[in-house]
Amino acid sequence: MGFIMEFAENLILRLMEDPKERDRKFREHVYATKARCDKTLEMWSYPLRPYGFWTFDRHNAQNFWDPQISQVQGRRDPYDDLLQHEK
User: Fold this and answer.
1) C-alpha–C-alpha distance, residues 61 and 63, integer Å
2) pTM higher than 0.85, yes or no?
3) Does 55 or 13 have the greater pLDDT score?
């Protein structure tokens, strides 16, 4: 019976990961995530958006779909007003 218990104990110990290795991997993951967060916060603090930020298709499509956005002053087509006055 001692042989089976020793075998099971060795099997479990081999399957378990080293706590120091696990801690090192977790620490690296936390530091990498913190670095990404810092970079994102830095990018968000810039007053200007990168080239093409407002011109991607999803943003423009939303402007056309939503009548509350598409009909505000400055976004309307000036010829729409002329066509409405003609009717």
Assistant:
1) 5
2) no
3) 13
> What would the DSSP string read from start to end of 65-78?
H-HHHHTSTTTS-H
19 three-state secondary structure: helix
Can you tell me whether residue 23 is helix, strand or coil?
A: helix
Minimum mean pLDDT range among 58-62, 71-75, 83-87:
83-87
Report the alpha-carbon distance of residue 59 to residue 61 in Å, rounded.
5
Our CA angle for 31, 33, 44, nearest 5°, is: 125
Q: How far apart are CA 71 and CA 77, in angstroms?
A: 9
The answer on pLDDT for 49 being more than 70 is no
Distant-in-sequence, close-in-space partners of 63: CB < 8 Å, separation ≥ 6: 69, 70, 75
Residue 28 structure tokens: 């690296």
Tell me how many degrees the CA angle 41-42-48 measures, rounded to the nearest 5.
110
